[in-house]
Amino acid sequence: RRTINIHDLPNLVGEDLGTTDWHPVTQEIVQQFGEATGDTQWIHTDIERAKAESPFGGTVAHGYYSVSLLPMFLEQLLDVQGAVMGLNYGLNKVRFPAPVPVGKNCVRILRSRMWRKSTMATSISSPPSSKSRTTRNQRRPSKPFTEPTADFCIT
């Protein structure tokens, strides 16, 4: 795990952040994720039907389940000093180029890419106060900041 000061995050632009530990994708967790999100489509939850009808030969994890692992994986790779909290600012581009079969392990290889620094990103570096709250009317500085991107590997 790499320790870095929040003000040094822009220096990570273009760098590989590392490879995480393997994470098992179990049917139980996929079922729980489906129940929590209301996405109980058979491709994720019905083992027998997925074996018979799915082009993947079995159930697969939800794409958003794989995205939801990002905070856990990022925590394995970086210890950001000086951050009071982390906020999910959003996603610009998400694609699911391959399914994540249930019963396999997955790992994230994180790379940082450049994006425009936002007021939300800058507000996490100091304790909240009435002066540091983000409002819709604030302008966004154009300094570079890092955005973690992820690749899934399956074994």
Description:
Residues 114-155 have low confidence and may be disordered. The protein has helices at 27-37, 42-45, 47-53, 63-68, 70-77, 119-123, and strands at residues 2-5, 16-19, 23-24, 78-81, 105-116, 144-154. By secondary structure, it is of the alpha+beta class. 26% of the residues lie in helices and 24% in strands. Strands 2, 3, 5 and 6 form a 4-stranded antiparallel β-sheet that branches.
Question: What spatial form do the alpha-carbon principal axes imply?
Answer: elongated
Structural class: alpha+beta
Ends apart, CA distance between termini? 23 Å
Could you tell me the number of beta strands?
6
Strand content: 15-25%
Annotation field: number of helices: 6
- Report the C-alpha radius of gyration, rounded: 18 Å
List the helices and strands in order: EEEHHHHHEEHE
- Which percent range fits the helix content? 25-40%
Unreliable stretches covering 5 or more consecutive residues = 114-155
Q: What's the average pLDDT?
A: 74
Q: Please outline the major beta sheet.
A: 4 strands, antiparallel
Keywords for this structure?
155 residues, alpha+beta, four-stranded antiparallel β-sheet, 26% helix, disordered C terminus
Question: Topology, please?
Answer:
Layout: E1 2-5, E2 16-19, E3 23-24, H1 27-37, H2 42-45, H3 47-53, H4 63-68, H5 70-77, E4 78-81, E5 105-116, H6 119-123, E6 144-154
Parallel strand pairs: 1-4
Antiparallel strand pairs: 2-5, 3-5, 5-6
Quick structural overview:
The chain is of the alpha+beta class and 155 residues long.
